[in-house]
Amino acid sequence: MASKHLYFQICLRVLLLVITSLVFAHLYLKEDYILSVYIAILLITQTILIIRFLNKTNRKIAYFFNAIENNDSTISFPYDIKTASIRELNSSLNRVNNLLREAKISIKEQEQYYQTILEEAETGILVLNETGHIILSNKTAKQLLNYQHLTHIQQLQPISESLFQTLKKNHGFDQKLIQIPNERESIHLTVKASKLIIKEKNMLMVVIQNIHKELDNQEIDSWQRLIRVLTHEIMNSVAPITSMSEKLLGYFKNNGELIKPETITQEKIVQTAKALDTINNQGKNLIKFTDSYRTLAKIPEPDKKLLKVQTLFETVRILLSQEEGIDRISFKTSISPNDLEVYADENLITLVLLNLTKNAIQSFIHQNNGLIVLSGKKNYSGTVTLKVSDNGPGIPENEMYKIFIPFYTSRKNGTGIGLSLSKHIMKLHHGSIEVKSKPNVQTDFSLHFQRGLGG
Q: Which BP terms does GO give this entry (predicted)?
């Protein structure tokens, strides 16, 4: 709307200027010099006014873009302007400025979330550039390397010549064992590096762990896979933001210089607003992603008691009765012995069974003969096993090791925390979760409770 008013104002002023010029030429040719002088004065006045009008608009837009270039989002243009075109231009500029300000706030919040995640991780993380400068180092990395201000790998040479020479090559490498001496004893660290490309720049992400703090090699691999998933999810979310930001800069810059304000079209303003709206939505998704991560650390200690397995299964059936697609699925239960009990926290184990059963239901989206079997039995050794089985598409073999990694999901709208949460709950019960899958035949998720903890 603002561009239409500006266009109308400019056309009107140019039209008046042309008419005045024609009148002046007509009077001058008729040798009416006195009236010609008055018309000439009017002509000069109109020329000055149109120049002042264009300069006022151009200065306002140029001021706005200079503020954007200098990251100044505090500017505001008045609304109480008599000229409709200028008033609506001010309104559009204020609206775009507000969107930019909200996008900046959202990005800063994302950075704080990611910084918190990295700082609280029990795995040391370093990110290096090609010149050896340390772009990022979390708290754990500083503690493991006993260095509070890491800025360049050269600082690592007195700590460990082996680590320094390894990182100096700036190449990715598989897990290595590094020994670092200190005042009392030597610390053994595992170090692994992976290449990254961020904004067309080669980076090296180094993962460092103290092997004495790990229960076994499988736990180490889990952490490294977690870091890869976090990096993957973060890059997937940040990449569109970076791409759109560069596209927006392309609207207003050419060869590093600001373009002339008068070349900005209404279409560019509309595209800018749409891009900013997308950036805002992407920021909200990132916040949702980090909120999901934090739920893993909020699980309470189990309040365990003897629970009837039959009652547990009935509760799950009732809670799932309104689930989408439930009417196309058959349910069966199998319990041996019939009065089987399990020693567990009712709320937490119900949550695990719900997660597993919902996953089975959602796997039947393209299948009408779905069958889910809830079973429980006491083994000869005295352990209790609860099982959720289905005849759905199953889990491919190359994805079996990934499914318990936080945030990994094969579903479009999945959060990727259900199975990792279930695994954590079973660990709190001193039990375990196991999966076996033969695609399109049968998939079993088994919950094993230690001997003496079952009924």
A: phosphorelay signal transduction system
